[in-house]
Specification:
It is found in: Cytoplasm. With about 190 residues, this protein is an all-beta fold. It folds into three domains: about 60 residues, Roll (SH3 type barrels); about 60 residues, Beta Barrel (OB fold (Dihydrolipoamide Acetyltransferase, E2P)); about 55 residues, OB fold (Dihydrolipoamide Acetyltransferase, E2P). The strands form three sheets. Strands 1-6-2-3-4-5 form a six-stranded antiparallel beta sheet, with no helix packed on it. A five-stranded antiparallel beta sheet has the order 9-8-7-10-11, with no helix packed on it. Strands 14-13-12-15-16 form a five-stranded antiparallel beta sheet, with no helix packed on it. A hairpin with a 5-residue loop joins strand 4 and strand 5.
Amino acid sequence: MASTSDIRKGLCIKYNHDIFKIIEFLHVKPGKGPAFVRTKLKSVTTGKVIDNTFSAGHKIEDVRVETHKFQFLYSDPTGYHFMNTDDYTQIVLQEQALDMPDLLKEGEVVTVLINTEDNMPLSVEMPATVELEVTSTEPGVKGNTATNATKPAVLETGARVNVPLFINEGDKIKVETDKGTYKERVKE
């Protein structure tokens, strides 16, 4: 049993007869009244995101998890296929277990959280950034740089990201996986 002081991003808890992963949290101590923790929880079974507020000191039931490195192989209509980098066993996960499935590139190594009670995979944690190639984007319009102007771009995985005007087709860029936003151009 844990309490609200143990809440952190990525923690898996049992709540309302389901297992949820904490994706955002904020400890709030108002001037008047008791402290509380505002959280955003994502169900690992359905992928549904809910907002919840726990009062300070509230007991929460955490789920013991192990982390294993898996390599993304491919996706098909049955799901996303991963291979354990230690013992080469393969697992198939559904789309709701992934936070940003459109940023997954074949061969990418991710961390999979596995429930120690029943050895079921709970969720996939992507690396902080991924390097992807821009497959199509409009050329930047000269003179349109008074502010931080951006344009849409399609990446090699099919993901759509807004990029600065100087990015061209064929450039490799870093994308932040938690927000799905452009970070920087990769120097070759």
